[in-house]
TrEMBL record, chain A:
This is Oligopeptide/dipeptide ABC transporter, ATPase subunit. It is a peripheral membrane protein. It comes from the Bacteria. The keyword Lipoprotein does not apply. GO terms for molecular function: ATP binding; ATP hydrolysis activity.
From TrEMBL, chain B:
Its main location: membrane. It is found in: Cell inner membrane. Keywords: ATP-binding, Nucleotide-binding, Transport. It holds the Pfam family ABC_tran. The keyword Hydrolase does not apply. This is Oligopeptide/dipeptide ABC transporter, ATPase subunit. Transmembrane segments: none annotated. GO terms for cellular component: plasma membrane. InterPro entries: AAA+_ATPase (IPR003593), ABC_transp_ATP-bind (IPR050319), ABC_transporter-like_ATP-bd (IPR003439), ABC_transporter-like_CS (IPR017871), Oligopep_ABC_C (IPR013563), P-loop_NTPase (IPR027417). Residues 6-246 form the ABC transporter domain.
Length: 321, 328
C-alpha cells in the first residue's frame, strides 16, 4: 500500500510560562491510502496533538517542531499557512468528539452544509448544492434529508448530528479524515451505527481514516491497524487482530487488562502509578517507572523493534531476559 | 434478597414543555436491598437520570412513592432525609468548584449537616480523604492541581461525608481513562465492603455493570423492560432492546465476543418515532408483532429475571448460563 501520510521522528514542544513541555517525543506513523488507522492512548499521551499537527491547527508561534511529516508528497511542517489552509477541508478533514459543539446552533444544517460546499467550489449553483447535500445525507443513512436540512442542530439527536458531521467531512472526498474520539458522547447502539456508516463510506470513497480514541473496544471493531501511544511516542503498532491477540508492549498489555470484560466479573487490573510529567522525561522508556518488567537497560533510548508489520518499542523485544 | 433499603413504587414523572407533555418515567418499580449494587442501564432518554433525580429529591414524582428504610420520602426532604443519600456525578471536572479548596468542598456537607464540631472538621476531612486513597494534606489544594481520577476520589469522599447509607453513582467512571477507571471501580468495591454501602449505579456502559453490580435494570423510554441478576441478564438477555444493547458493547477479546448476542439487524437507532401505545421499543424492533402495539407489555418471568417482551429472545437454561460464566 502506498503511504498517504508519513510521519518520521516527529517532535513537538510547547513553549509555556513554566518552560518547554515536550508533548511529542519522536512519533513514527504511516497511514496508507484508504487505510483505517487507530491511535489509542490515555489523556495526555499526545494523540490529539498529533491530529492537530497534521491538520495544521496548532499556533505556530507557541510550538517548536522537528522531524518529517509528509502528506501526499508534500512537507506539512515546512509549507506556508496559506497552503495548509487550502488543504484543510479539502484533502484532509476532521470530525470532533461532540457533534453538538461542532455545529453552530444559530444556523440550520442547510446553511452550514452549503457553506462547506461553496468553500470547496465557489461557482456551485444552489440547485447543485441542494442535490449534493441530499445525496451526502442519504449516504450517511439519513432517510429524510429535507427535514434534517431544515433543522437546527439542537433539534436533532446526537446520532443524527454526528452523521451530519460525517456527511460534511466527506463531501469533498478527502484523502484523509481525522476522527477525534467520534461517538464518545453517544449511546453504544448509536455509536456502533455511526462507526459502521463511517467504515462503509471510507471504503466506498477510498478515504483513509486516522481514528483517535481511548476506547480499545471501539478501535478493535473499526481499525485496520492500531498504534498505541504513551507519553508522546508510539510504543506499539500492529494490525488490529495481531495487536489484540498478541499485545507485546507491557503498556499495551496493562491497558488491555484494565478494560472490564463481559466474560468475567472480576475487577479489571489497574495500572499502578500515573502518567509521567512531560516536563521531566528522559530519553529512556517512559513507561519504565510503572512497568513490572523494567530493568536498568530501560533507561537507554528504546528503538522500535519491527517484525512482520508488528512494531514494539520495548527493550525486552530486542534482548529478551 | 436482604431487606430493601430503597423502594420505588409506580414512580412516574411528566414534564410539561410548553403545551406538550414529556413522559420521562411511566411507572417504575424498583427495590434495592441493603448492601446491594443495582445498576440502571439505558440510553439517553430512557429516564434513568430522572429516576435518580426523584430518588435524590431534586425532582418531585408526578405519581408514585419513594420509600427509604421503610419511611416514605415526601417531595420536600428534611435534612435528615437528605443525609441518607449521597451522590457521585459523572464529570469530576465540572462538579468541583475550581475556586474552592478540596477541604472546602468536602467541608460543606459537614457543616450543613452538623456532622462534627468545627474544631474537628479538618481531621474529619483528612479521614475522608484517606478513606478514598488520597493524602490528607491534599485538602489545602484546589481541584486544578488534581488529576481526573483524584478529583473523582474527592467527589466520592464528599458524598461519604454525611455517612449516607445509599450512594447514587451517576456514570462515575464515564469521563475517566480506562486505566483510571479500574482504580475507581476497585475503590468503590472496597468502600462498599468496608462501610456496607448500598449503590444505585446509573450508567450506559454495560461492561462496567458486569464487574460492579449484582442486579441490573434495563430501562427504555421511561419503562423498565428487563430486570434480573447480572449473570442471568448478560448470559441470556430476553428483551430485544437488551439484546441490541449487549450486542453493541465494544469488546476487546474473542472470548467477550462469544458472549454477545447475535444482532445483525440494521435498525434506525435514531428513530424519533414515539410509540404512544404498546411497547416503546416497537418502532426499532425487528421482532415486533401486531400484539406489541396493543398494550404496554408488563414485566413477567421468573423472579430472578423479569422481562417485558412479547416476542423475547431464547431463554438459556439457568444451568447453561452459569456454566458459561463459571468457565471463564
Amino acid at each position: 500500500m502506498e503511504d498517504l501520510l508519513r510521519i518520521d521522528d516527529l517532535r513537538l514542544t510547547f513553549e509555556t510560562h513554566d518552560g518547554p513541555v515536550s508533548v511529542l517525543r519522536g512519533v513514527d506513523l504511516t497511514v496508507g491510502t484508504g487505510e483505517r488507522v487507530a491511535l489509542v492512548g490515555e489523556s495526555g499521551s499526545g494523540k490529539s496533538v498529533t491530529a492537530r499537527v497534521i491538520m495544521g491547527l496548532l499556533p505556530q508561534r507557541r510550538i517548536r517542531t522537528s522531524g518529517n511529516l509528509q502528506l501526499d508528497g508534500s512537507d506539512v511542517l515546512k509549507e506556508s499557512p496559506a497552503r495548509a489552509k487550502g488543504r484543510r477541508g479539502r484533502d484532509i478533514t476532521m470530525i470532533f468528539q461532540d457533534p453538538m459543539a461542532a455545529l453552530n446552533p444559530v444556523f440550520t444544517i442547510r446553511q452550514q452544509f452549503a457553506a462547506v460546499l461553496t468553500r470547496l467550489d465557489r461557482r456551485l449553483s444552489t440547485a447543485e448544492a441542494e442535490s449534493c447535500m441530499r445525496t451526502a445525507l442519504r449516504d450517511v443513512s439519513i432517510a429524510d434529508p429535507e427535514r434534517v436540512l431544515d433543522s437546527y442542530s439542537f433539534q436533532l439527536s446526537g446520532g443524527l448530528n454526528q452523521r451530519v458531521m460525517i456527511a460534511m467531512a466527506l463531501a469533498s472526498r478527502p484523502k484523509l479524515l481525522i476522527a477525534d474520539e467520534p461517538g464518545t458522547a453517544l449511546d453504544v447502539t448509536v455509536q456502533q451505527q455511526t462507526l459502521n456508516i463511517m467504515a462503509n463510506l471510507s471504503q466506498a470513497y477510498g478515504t483513509a481514516i486516522l481514528f483517535i480514541s481511548h476506547n480499545l473496544g471501539v478501535v478493535r471493531k473499526f481499525a485496520d491497524r492500531v498504534c498505541v501511544m504513551y507519553a508522546g511516542r508510539i510504543v506499539e503498532s500492529a494490525p488490529t487482530d495481531a495487536l489484540f491477540a498478541n499485545p507485546r508492549h507491557p503498556y499495551t498489555r496493562a491497558l488491555l487488562a484494565s478494560v472490564p470484560r463481559l466474560s468475567s466479573d472480576r475487577l479489571p487490573e489497574a495500572i499502578e502509578g500515573s502518567v509521567p510529567d512531560l516536563t521531566a522525561l528522559t530519553e529512556g522508556c517512559a513507561f519504565r517507572p510503572r512497568c513490572q518488567f523494567s530493568r536498568p537497560e530501560c533507561e537507554a533510548p528504546v528503538p522500535m523493534w519491527r517484525h512482520a508489520g508488528h512494531g514494539v518499542a520495548c527493550i525486552h523485544e530486542v534482548n529478551p531476559a | 434478597m436482604s431487606e430493601p433499603l430503597l423502594q420505588i413504587r409506580e414512580a412516574a414523572k411528566t414534564f410539561h414543555v410548553g403545551s406538550s407533555e414529556v413522559k420521562a418515567l411511566k411507572g417504575v418499580n424498583l427495590s434495592v436491598g441493603k448492601g446491594e449494587t443495582v445498576a440502571i442501564v439505558g440510553e439517553s432518554g430512557s429516564g434513568k437520570t430522572t429516576l435518580a433525580n426523584l430518588i435524590l429529591g431534586i425532582e418531585k414524582p408526578s405519581a408514585g412513592e419513594i420509600v427509604l428504610a421503610g419511611r416514605p420520602l415526601s417531595g420536600r426532604r428534611s435534612k435528615a432525609d437528605r443525609r441518607q443519600i449521597g451522590l457521585v456525578q459523572q464529570n469530576p471536572y465540572s462538579t468541583l468548584n475550581p475556586r474552592k479548596s478540596i477541604g472546602q468542598a468536602i467541608g460543606l456537607p459537614l457543616s450543613v449537616h452538623n456532622v462534627c464540631r468545627r474544631s474537628e472538621r479538618r481531621r474529619r476531612i483528612g479521614e475522608l480523604l484517606e478513606k478514598v486513597g488520597l493524602h490528607p494534606e491534599l485538602q489545602d489544594r484546589r481541584p486544578l492541581a488534581l488529576s481526573g481520577g483524584q478529583r473523582q476520589r474527592v467527589a466520592i469522599a464528599r458524598a461519604l461525608a454525611t455517612d449516607p447509607e445509599l450512594l447514587v453513582l451517576d456514570e462515575p467512571t464515564s469521563s475517566l481513562d480506562v486505566s483510571v477507571q479500574a482504580h475507581i471501580l476497585r475503590l468503590l468495591k472496597d468502600l462498599q465492603e468496608e462501610l456496607g454501602l448500598t449503590y444505585l449505579f446509573i450508567t450506559h456502559d454495560l461492561s462496567v455493570v458486569r464487574v460492579l453490580a449484582s442486579r441490573v435494570i434495563v430501562m427504555y423510554r421511561g419503562l423498565v423492560v428487563e430486570e434480573g441478576a447480572v449473570a442471568d441478564v448478560f448470559s441470556g438477555p430476553r428483551h430485544r432492546y437488551t439484546q441490541q444493547l449487549l450486542a453493541s458493547i465494544p469488546t476487546v477479546s474473542a472470548e467477550d465476543d462469544r458472549l454477545k448476542p447475535d444482532w445483525s439487524w440494521e435498525a434506525d437507532v435514531d428513530s424519533t418515532e414515539v410509540a404512544e401505545e404498546g411497547c416503546p421499543f416497537r418502532p426499532r424492533c425487528p421482532f415486533a408483532l401486531p400484539a406489541c402495539a396493543a398494550g404496554t407489555p408488563v414485566l413477567a418471568g421468573p423472579k430472578h429475571h423479569l422481562h417485558a417482551c412479547l416476542n423475547p429472545g431464547g431463554a438459556p437454561t439457568r444451568k447453561s448460563s452459569l456454566e458459561l460464566l463459571a468457565g471463564q
